[in-house]
Structure formats: C-alpha cells, structure tokens
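Structure ticket #2291
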Amino acid sequence: MPTKVVEMKPSHRRLSALLGLLFGAGLACQLPTTTSGQVDPTALAEALVAAQNATIVAGLTETAALPAPELPAEGTATPTETATSAETATTAATISTSPSARLIENTHCRKGPLAAYDLVITYLNGQLLDILGKNAAGDYWFVSNPNNPSANCWLWGRYAQVSGDTNQVPVFTPPPTPTPNLTPTPAWQWAGTWGIWIDAAFLNQFTQSLTLNGSQVSGTVNVGAGSESLTGTTGQGGRNVSGVIPGRSVTFQWYMLDSGDQFIGSFYNTGDKFTGPYCGSRNGQPRPSPCQWP
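Resolution: structure written out below.
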C-alpha cells in the first residue's frame, strides 16, 4: 500500500521546531497542556523563553570557566624589554668619558704653556674643549680646537672647569720657550700715567700712575672717587708685572704689548674669589682687545 505523505503546514512546522528546541533543552516531558489535552500556546511561549534563557546562561558559564591568560610575573621583562635594555646599556657604554674643560672666562690659548708664547686663539666664556694633554706642572691644558685640529693650543687652567678623569691625561713636552728680549727699552718702561679698564663690562675707564725702581713697580690706581696704592715686581726683562692692591684684596698681573703703550692683564679678588680683565693704554692708544691675559 503506498505511503501517504502528509504535508505539514507552516504553522505546524514552526510548532515542530519549537518542540525540538524544548526537547533539546530537556523540557519536552513537561509541556503545558489544557484540560482537553491540547498544548497551551501561552504557556508554551513562556516555556520557550525560559529554555532560551537557560541556553544563554549555560554559554556564559562555559565562557567564565575558561582558564585566564597567563601574565608575566611582576618585574619580569618581556623579550622586547630585554632587547631595549641591552641597547640602552650598549649606548651608555659608548658615551665618551674623555676629560674636557669648560671655560668660565674668556681665555687666551697659546702655542705653549706660558704667556711668553704666541697667541693662537681666544676662547670665549662657556666654550667646551676636549683635553688632549697637560704640562708637567699640571696648570696648563693642551686642548683640541673644534674647528681646526692644526690649531690645538695651551690654555691656563685657572679659568677652566674640568670634568672627567685627568689622571690618565699624558704629559706633553711644550715647544721651546721663545727667547725674550731681555734688553730693557723705553717702550717697556711702566712709569707714567695709564688709562685702565678694570671691570668686565668696560663701562668705566680709570687711571693709574706708576713709578719704576729697578724691578719694583709702585703707584696708585684711581677707581671712582677714591684711590688705592699698588705694588708689583717685573719679570721677563721688565715686560711682565705681578703685584697686589692691598686695600682691595686684589692680586694682578700685566703683560706689555710690543707697542709699549698697551698692556693686557687680569685681576683676582681673593675675598670674593672673582677674576676679571685688567688692561691699559697710553699715548692715545685704544683699549687692547682682548683685554684679559692670560
């Protein structure tokens, strides 16, 4: 006998799908029915919603049960961090520790470690220079010219703030000392009246009167409304003078230029520990430039 095929209406198919969902949730055996034995549609819809909610909750529970991802322990560097640290260490190791000198005053740099040597260049306050060598006394530095390596020169360490280890800096032998002109000449006579500049800004020109007795220099310096006495001693055949202004707690040193009508120099206030230029001229000559020496 041929099998009879019964076509299910769409509403029946939806009901069948709902029943399948209920069976899958284990609730088919508890389907609500009316007193006539038919399935109660309203109760069925409520049961379906409950089944869907149960499925969602079950999914959330499974998700919560998944193991948490492992995090690196505190203080444990990742491979990237380790590489970065290694690069930093390498960079730090390549930083130069060569000694250097930063100038705190405009300073002459010469061919040798004495004022008797020819001037090469005057470096300005704040200039940073690499130290290549030193003299045996340790009071002059042989520095590298940053713009012209052939013009490396010697500067007095008094106006240099040194950083780095200078114990390993080699001692350089300076060139032969220039032979000074030891014959006293009228051009090198310090006696007379000088116009002087004795402050950093060169705003005021003062005067000083000097007398010379052998190698001894004495006189007065007029600063503002008052005057102070000074004494000194010549050197290098009369070309240099070093001395003191007792009333000002000041020491000074001068160097006569070849013209004989200009000198350059510096002073040092022993109380304030301050240094500055001290230069002069006469017979109509202008202020020397640079004024400060050494």
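Closing remark: Helices lie at 10-24, 41-65, 79-94.
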